Amino acid sequence: MTASTSAPTRPREGGIAPSTAGYRRGRRGLLYGFLVATSLVWLFPILWAVFNSFRDYSYTSEHGYVSFGGFTVDNYLNAWRRGDFGQHFWNSVIITVPAVVVTLVLAACVAFVVARFNFKINIAMLMMFTAANLLPQQALLVPLFKLYNYIQVPFWFSDSGTLYNSYWAVIITHIAFQTGFCTFVLSNYMKTLPTELTEAALVDGAGVLRQFLQVILPLCRPPLAALATLEVTWVYNDFFWAVAFMSQGDKYPVTSSLQNLRGEFFTDYNLLSAGSVMAALPTLIVFFVLQKQFVSGLTLGATKG
Amino acid sequence: MATTQTQEAGLATARPPRRRAHRLSKGDRLILALMAGVPAVVVIGLVWLPAAATVFLSFTSWDGFGPISEAKNVGLKNYHDVVTIYPPFKPALEHNLIWLAVTFLVPTVFGMFLAVLLDRELRGSRIYQSALFLPVVLSLALTGFIWQLIYSRDQGLLNAVLGLHGANAIDWYGDSSINLWAVLVAASWRHTGYIMLLYLAGLKGVDPSLREAAAVDGASQTRTFFQVVFPVMRPINIIVLVVTVIESLRAFDLVWVINKGRNGLELISALVVSNIVGEGQRIGFGSALASIMLVISLVFIVIYLSAVLREDKP
User: Fold this and answer.
1) ipTM of the assembly?
2) Distance from the A155 Cα atom to the nearest Cα atom in chain B, whole angstroms
3) Whole-model pTM?
4) What is the pLDDT of residues A220-254, one digit of tens each?
5) Which A residues 20-59 touch B at CB under 8 Å?
6) Per-residue pLDDT tens for A49-94?
7) Chain A residues 221-280 with CB within 8 Å of chain B
8) Which of A34, A145, B16, B262 is least enclosed by beta carbons within 10 angstroms?
């Protein structure tokens, strides 16, 4: 395009002159060396946490952390017990599962309307939903805090008598906050599905609900899987809403409860490592098993289709 | 809301006629209204109205306890106080700006560089990508803990490797002259992989014939990237810009788990929370801080929306 033709022509891939082959091999070697080194640097903090989580505190305090030996699994048992991980993992499940399921249902509904029909309001709707996900959480804190304190609910619904200090507050806030992103991704995807699909269903006399449930939704399995993976990770990783809307530490999900872990085990870094590794475990499973879905969820939001 | 500015621009982007609305039966119209209406009520009620309420509260002196009708209108007093008589505001603003600048200069540039390196036929490319992207799945709170094992004054790796003991030992998270930079290393560690993924996706979308044409013209790889490839990745560049700005503004978890955003780690988001929870609740004042964040983020949200919706043209 703008490149000048006077620059010396470099040999293109495939047609390598013998004299430059060695040079190119050297550059390749440099490239691989750089990538290997960078990857190791990136993995190191996590490997360091894993390494020390398996070491005995008395061993590391005597020999220092830059040593080898004193291996044990006791840190995990202690952290599990003292950090009450069973309870906090269960709290994470209670919050994450309904939040992600409802978010996806709501987002799929809006995306269907926005992507498959030509209402005047559609673009405004899409903007309203997408922008909601990008607002700073702290800017919503006071009104939501007061609202949840104000709303009285029966005790069978929430043992605090209000929405505040209940899982509900955290769940509905996640839903409201995350629906925007999912709507954006799903509507982009639904727009790529050919119009003929729903036209055909229409000729068969199918109403909009049947078009949605039987034609569009089954085709949206890939983005739904990607979004589910991504949203589970995000909601699980959330620290802020649970701390903001729940006063009882024993209701905290894992990510928010990490703070207590440090308070209790301030001096025992091996225990802290074990707690961190356990808290990271669900997301590490996502990383190893569902990496493809996670990455495509992230990039679906950024590119079209 | 500020989105109205982009609304006209957005509405002008005509899409091909899909299906005429008037062919819909009454029942179908009702179903569609519910499908869009219920989620809209949730998002407006729990995101947009609270955001508007925050702006409203920022003009009042509400203590947060009495009925809201007792809230007195104090005009711009809270904003004036934020700027004039609130010492942590200036450092917090500076830290947010440093955060933004560093996030742009280090992880964004480095992530893009890595994406360019990895976007070619390489043995084990997936393995390098995975290693670099691993921190992205971890929460920011957890990132803070993992790096504490390195930064801790008495038991951290860094001091041990540098041979700093006793009085010479550096408290990387605690020393207010360096803790911001220590935290930024951890934040950059996590952000790089994210940017790399976005640019890898962007580079895949670049028409290979553009690069071939540039190579035929004799342009070097560096030149091809900056003059041909980078400009056509405009949509990704805008997303990276917005993601980086918004994430820098929303940075909260990392500093909050370390020391609740004090002593060198002041950020506007942390000041909002400290004023609202904590000892003396200063709702109006905290809301003024929150409104400042809201306005900054809305500017970038508008940039983002106008960009992605312009791309909407099929």
Assistant:
1) 0.85
2) 23
3) 0.87
4) 999 999 999 999 999 999 999 998 898 888 889 99
5) 31-32, 34-36, 38-40, 42-43, 45-46, 48-49, 52
6) 999 899 888 888 777 777 787 888 888 998 888 888 999 999 999 9
7) 233, 236-240, 244, 255-256, 258-259, 262, 267, 269, 272-273, 275-276, 279-280
8) B16
